[in-house]
Each structure stands twice: as C-alpha cells, then as structure tokens.
Amino acid sequence: MTKAASAQDGAAPDPLRGTLELLGDQWTLLIVQSVFLRVRRYEELRARLGISPTALSGRLRAAVDAGILARSPYRGQGRTRHEYRLTESGLDLWPLLVSIWTWERTWVAGRAEALPNLTHVDCGKHTVAGLGCGACLEPVALADVRLVRLRPAHSTGGAARRFRRRDAEPLAVDPLLFFPATMELLGDRWSTSIMLNAFLGTEHFSEFERELGIGPSVLSDRLGRLVAAGVLGTGTARTRADARAYRLLPKGAAFLPCLAILIEWTRARRPAGADASGPGVALHHLACGHPLEPVLLCEHCSVALSRKALAFDLDAPAPSPALR
Predict the structure, then answer these.
(1) What pTM, to 2 d.p., does this model score?
(2) H-only helix segments in 200-237
(3) 221-250 exposure pattern, b = at least 16 Cβ within 10 A, e = fewer
(4) Is residue 230 scored above 90 in pLDDT?
C-alpha cells in the first residue's frame, strides 16, 4: 500500500464532500440507476422503488439542483407533465454504477449469482469491468497508485446515513435495488471518511481521530463495522507494539475504482476558471507518471469500455444496452 503525500492545507471547502453528500445516498443512486434504465416518470419511480413521496421529491430536487437530472415536459392525461432525464453530468456517472456492480459481484457473498451479467457488446463476452489508467490503458490496483491529500482530511466527508433498515426490506427481493455492502462504505458520512483516509495511509486510531475530528465512540463503532464487513483488518502498529493499526484488506482495496471515479467526476465538474476549487484528493498512476484518469477496462480484450458498448442481461433472451 502506498502512503499519501500531503500538500499544503487549503482553506477552500472540498467539493468532494458535496459529491459524497449527494451520491453517498442509496435513494439517489437508485434513482439515477432507474433513469439509466429508462424509468423516468415520478409515479414510475415511486412504483419501482417503493419510496415515499417526500423522500422521492427531495432526492429528485437535489439531483436537479446538482445538475445530474433535468426535468423534461411531456403530455400526459390531457396536461403537461414532467419526466426526469440524465444530463451529460448525470450520464458520466455510469462508471460508478458499473463499479458498484463489479465490487458487489466480486466481493459480496451471493451477489455473483444474484446480479445480472454484464456484456461488452464489442467483443461479445461477459466481462468484469476493472479499473484502468486512461493515459496508458493499463490495469490499475491500489499498489499502482499514489494518493495525494490536497487539503485537510476533515474537509472531506460522506453523506449521513439516511437510508433506514425498513426502507431496505422491500428492496431486498430485487438484487438491482439492494446494495447494503456498498452503502456500508459509501452511504455513511464517517465510514466514507474513514475509508478515504485509509486509502491515504492513515492506520492508527489516534490518527483517524485527529484527521477527522471524530469522537472516539463514533470512531470505534465505525471501525468495528468496517472490520466486521471485511474491508479493514487489524494488526500491530509499526511504531508501537501496544497500539492497534487498521489497514485495508483486499476487499477494501478493491473499492478503489468507486472512490477514484467519484474523485474524477468531482474534478471534471469543476467550473472553468483558475480560482475554481477541485477535489481534496488526487491520484497518480506510478507506472506511467500521469494523473490517474480512471477508465473501466474489459477483462477480455483490455479495451476501455464506453457506456453504449455495455449491456446488462436483464431477463432478456439477448442483451440490449441498458445504460442509455
């Protein structure tokens, strides 16, 4: 695992926090996924997700305000109504959805059998989309990446937990609507912040406490949950024999594509102008020396995947592109 290099702390708020507040919420991710699958109208979304009107309206409003969905008029029942369509920024989220599918299918027990296959239309084979470098098109793992902190760690954070257990129960029958393992990492403010700092090289309890400004009881709870989830492991600290260290296990390291894509998506949405603030974490590919621009690679032909060249096999005799 590589250690993070620290740059000079900046005072500007980290837009990565806003990204994680928006997308580190299972309802929002499921709404975006539904619109990709052409479920675009309010009542259709309610019927598919079983979400309350208040929660659905709030998530749709936040997604429109964030520029990932746009309201589009259509005529229905004699009057003008609106449906929701993905903007270019919203369409650019397809690698995140595919990476979540890949991680769950690879690392979460039972999900390989439950989730549909993903087909690369160009080569015609079922594929698992792995992380690659856009500059050299080589596969990328955590050991191949140098993570650089550009601002204080406590200025990044994920969404507070807003997806209740009773919300998940009716969704559990449909594997495409149920991602509890991902939400343990992405859908909780503190868990996401701990994972991000673990990728940056933080290991000790006191370091997490100091970097995040988190209370010891909350930190202990979240670390325990991440250990129980199999993404962090415990061992003896390198500096003190009586201290415990928390280090990424292979399951946790394999979540790198999701974080890399969120960081890149945040960077790409930065407004034009020299004063615009980018995300507080940068990634560099050690092999080619370029900043990491994450792409997804087909495991068979090593081609960088495009949205329109992917198809989920959704109960059809022949796959048809799903992420339109």
Answers:
(1) 0.87
(2) 205-212, 216-228
(3) ebbebbeebebbeeeebeeeeeeebbbbbe
(4) yes
